Amino acid sequence: MMMIDLMDSTWKLAVHALNVLRLVITDSSLAPDLNRYVSDVFQLAVQGFKASQWSLRNSSMMVFTAVTQLIVSSDRNDSSGASVPTAKSFFTRFPLLE
Fold it and tell me: With CB atoms 3.0 to 4.6 Å apart as the test, which of 31, 56, 81, 92 could cross-link to 51 if both were Cys?
């Protein structure tokens, strides 16, 4: 997994990469194909909260929000009929985040 806290010369590239990642996550036509990457993206976003650059922390928070919305919206479309995802269903789908 990529470490978010990068040298001063590359933090802008990391911010750009996180912003592109956020756009990919929010693209509804790609949502069905992203399930296998949700755990990695979630961990990457949380890891970014420790970055020394504010812009990296901010971009990480936006990725975290986008991936959380993706998880919640896909749980709402689940066949169980539950309108709110449960912790059990969340960790069953994404065991690496437990």
Answer: 56
pLDDT, tens digit (0-9, with 9 covering 90-100), for 8-50: 568 889 999 999 999 999 998 887 888 889 889 999 999 999 9
Does residue 38 contact residue 82 with C-beta atoms inside 8 Å? no
Does the pTM of the predicted model rise above 0.85? no
Q: What are phi and psi of 82, to 5 degrees?
A: -70, 135
